[in-house]
Structure to design on (284 residues):
């Protein structure tokens, strides 16, 4: 994807009156950061207006990056493919079920939160903040060790199991603690405070999407929520998940050692098939 940059352009500033200001995305790699004018109050006014326009523009943009835990270890992928095979074998006659609904096994993940990073400076800021989180919270929660997580059981997002859009696998700390949830929530707190992330919920909903109706027409789609994409989703064709939920309620996808948080790039792939990384924080 193209790394967008917001450039604030103005013709001139006279006193308190801002004569002209506009904002637009361009394919450059630095922000226009010097504002000049005849009066201090005018410069301050221009800066405030520019900041408001930048944030207004940002809120309308699809997310570009997200913090994630990768769940694409070979053993998990193998169990996921077994799940897919059995679902198609036993439930293919249920309304809306097709192979196109399933997640790409190489991209199995937990989303912590989404970000709109509009230029290289913002990406660098996110990288630096992620590393700073190690000292502030990660070491305390993880004790410098991987978190052992079990992926077991399935659940759906909406209220009607006969009209499902998102089916996900549930994650549990093997030791029964809430450390994974605590880590995710604290990371979001840090990024929201920095201004790099918008808070979507009081707590992060940790889930590993295994089936999603947005994949039906676009296998590369990601869907944290409508607000994060900047525009509503097109009409979906839901599927009947009742049989799947009954037969696979406690399906075991396996156990995984989570040893890092990734700053993942949307619509990208690395050599493993997972999302390309713009930064990574290791626990050990």
């Amino acid at each position: 994807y193209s790394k967008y940059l917001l450039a604030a352009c103005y013709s001139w500033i006279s006193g308190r009156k801002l004569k002209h200001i506009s904002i637009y995305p361009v394919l450059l790699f630095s922000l226009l950061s010097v504002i000049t004018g005849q009066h201090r109050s005018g410069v301050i006014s221009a800066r405030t207006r520019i900041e408001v326009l930048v944030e207004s523009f940002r809120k309308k943009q699809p997310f570009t990056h997200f913090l994630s835990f990768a769940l694409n270890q070979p053993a998990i992928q193998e169990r996921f493919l077994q799940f897919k095979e059995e679902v198609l074998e036993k439930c293919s006659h249920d309304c809306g079920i097709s192979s196109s609904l399933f997640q790409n096994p190489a991209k199995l993940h937990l989303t912590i939160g989404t970000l709109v990073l509009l230029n290289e400076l913002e990406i660098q800021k996110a990288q630096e903040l992620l590393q700073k989180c190690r000292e502030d919270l990660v070491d305390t929660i993880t004790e410098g060790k991987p978190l052992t997580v079990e992926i077991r059981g399935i659940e759906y997002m909406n209220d009607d199991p006969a009209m499902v859009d998102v089916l996900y696998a549930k994650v549990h700390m093997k030791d029964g603690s809430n450390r994974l949830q605590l880590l995710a929530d604290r990371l979001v707190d840090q990024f929201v405070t920095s201004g790099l992330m918008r808070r979507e919920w009081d707590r992060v909903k940790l889930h590993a999407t295994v089936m999603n109706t947005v994949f039906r027409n676009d296998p590369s789609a990601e869907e944290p929520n409508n607000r994060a994409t900047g525009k509503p989703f097109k009409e979906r064709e839901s599927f009947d998940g009742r049989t799947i939920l009954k037969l696979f309620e406690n399906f075991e996808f396996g156990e995984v050692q989570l040893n890092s948080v990734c700053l993942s790039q949307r619509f990208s792939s690395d050599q493993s098939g997972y999302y390309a990384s713009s930064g990574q924080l290791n626990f050990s």
The first strand starts at residue 5 and ends at 10. The mean pLDDT is 84. The chain has six helices and twelve strands. The domain at 63-222+237-282 is CATH 3.90.1140.10 (Cyclic Phosphodiesterase; Chain: A,).
